[in-house]
Model the fold of this input.
Amino acid sequence: MDLTEPESAKWLPEANPISVANNIALNQLSMSPKTRAQLEKALAKKGTPEDVAKTVLDRLTELGYVDDLAYSQMFIRSKTQTKHLARRAMSYELAKRGVHKDLIEEALLDITTEDEWEMARQLVAKKLRSMKDLGQDVITRRLMGTLARKGYSGSIAGAVIREALETQNQ
Done:
């Protein structure tokens, strides 16, 4: 009796590497949208040869399942509404996910400077509600830190905070 290979394995056909890679990629996409770079990384982690991964991802791109621009636009819409991230922070996050710089810039065209100011104002207004009992310098320091972590420039942060504090003190 041969112990190296189970009896049932003799009846299984060899797996087609393209089918296996396609299943891996589709499984990843079924969990959440992914960039091409994220899928490349997932396929590499599973031991998929580069040429097979490229073939599968090219086909999925052709079919519209992988679209870094659409992913970037969706990401930006989501993060502006939920996290109030500035353009700089969103650019950084998308670059971390492997989106090409040109696609990031194109996706960020939808956010104007006025939109960024308005997001900063909304974030400051939201945070100010929980800081009523603190001194103005403590409030300013905390709000500056919050806005900096969200990617806002010092000039936007300072102006928005001054504006909010003046309105609050009236």
